[in-house]
Design brief:
single chain, alpha+beta, 2 domains, 4-stranded antiparallel beta sheet, 13 helices, globular
């Protein structure tokens, strides 16, 4: 049992470490949210050093001391990034960091008028924003050079040789409008007020208390250490995207999705999650067609594809277009401006097209018979 307790502690610590990276990698920061604490005054990069106004340092130092008194040092996470890229949404600035350099440790010490060398700090790329603003594809995002220090990461990612971080700030290409860019750094709080805030507190509480539930038979214990039940039968998935047969791992996702309301498929960029999405769309189309052929009743096969960056959704659209042969198969959403200018007119055009079409019952019966014949062969 002591071995299991040790494993539980490792699992909980791993989740807390993941939340730290997740918070560090937020693609968008709302400056109007007090928990985010954007600091963009009295901050500069001089050579390779981060220079802070003494009043800013003292304010954050005081926050650090308060969390130390509460025994929650891990709740204090401050990062710096540059340049400042933001746009106004709903009357507040939304910042888009390209990477986050963790400077939390500097507040354990005293103020330094000469600043702090950022090359000694850990950092994390903000993948969605790098893909969005600098057109990195999934393979490039997966192979960023992150283990050789901050300068090597910046030079290889942005293809701009430089001597100091101050030089880099002056050289980097900036996104066009509607984004506003200022070539100066800013600090942001990267732990509080996020989607995982309450979950993080729960996990920390579990970590700090005895694991009385760690007994055989308890659902949580069985989830972690129990032996999964063997499948009682093989699931047959009834739809797949025609250009790429599913791999074994993709087939497992399709089978799970066909029998369960929620399926999570994890993988780094370039791990074929786009192809899985295409297979799931095909699965929904076939499910709708079979239900219509078998019962005469139509059902919705609406599928929402969303992501933290436009490229991931565009990849799905580009793969769908040659297969469907029509623009009425899907609608491209996005910002309110995009919806008003493109999506709504496209939707109205589709409705107008439907009004002009006539229903051919004999054609439906013919196609339904063909579909059911194929279904019977597969079964």
């Amino acid at each position: 049992m002591s071995n299991h307790h040790s494993k539980i502690t490792k699992i909980l610590n791993a989740w807390l470490d993941f939340f730290y990276l997740e918070n560090l990698c937020r693609a968008q920061i709302n400056a109007a949210d007090d928990s985010n604490q954007i600091f963009d005054k009295g901050i500069s990069i001089i050579g390779d050093n981060l220079s802070l106004h003494e009043s800013t340092f003292k304010e954050l130092k005081q926050q650090y001391q308060q969390v130390v008194k509460k025994g929650k040092t891990n709740d204090f996470k401050i990062a710096v990034t540059f340049p400042s890229i933001w746009r106004v949404i709903d009357n507040s600035r939304r910042f888009y960091p390209l990477f986050a350099i963790d400077i939390s440790a500097i507040f354990t010490g005293n103020y330094r008028a000469k600043g702090w060398d950022l090359n000694s700090c850990s950092f994390q790329p903000i993948i969605p924003n790098l893909m969005e603003f600098y057109e990195l594809d999934e393979e490039e995002a997966e192979n960023l050079v992150t283990l050789e220090g901050l300068k090597v990461f910046l030079e290889t990612t942005f293809k701009k040789p430089f001597q100091t971080l101050q030089d880099f700030v002056d050289l980097i290409e900036v996104p066009p409008k509607p984004f506003t860019t200022k070539r100066n750094p800013y600090l942001f709080q990267c732990s509080l007020g996020n989607w995982n805030y309450n979950l993080k507190k729960d996990l920390q509480k579990i970590l700090d208390t005895p694991h009385s539930w760690a007994q055989p038979g308890h659902p949580a214990y069985e989830y972690l250490f129990g032996k999964p039940k063997e499948p009682t039968h093989e699931t047959l998935y009834s739809g797949a995207f025609p250009t790429h047969p599913p791999t074994d791992s993709q087939a497992a996702v399709l089978k799970h999705a066909q029998k369960n309301p929620l399926t999570a498929a994890f993988g780094p960029p370039g791990n074929a999650k786009t192809t899985i999405t295409l297979h799931l769309i095909a699965q929904q189309v076939v499910k709708r067609a079979l239900h219509l052929a078998q019962t005469g009743e139509d059902i919705s096969n609406l599928t929402l594809v969303t992501s933290t960056n436009n490229r991931a959704v565009t990849n799905v659209e580009e793969r769908l277009s040659p297969i469907t042969g029509t623009e009425r198969f899907y609608l491209s959403g996005g910002s309110k401006e995009l919806i008003n200018q493109q999506l709504l007119p496209k939707l109205q055009a589709a409705l107008d097209w439907l009004q002009q079409q006539s229903f051919d019952a004999s054609k439906l019966a013919e196609i339904s018979a063909q579909l059911l014949a194929v279904e019977n062969q597969i079964q």
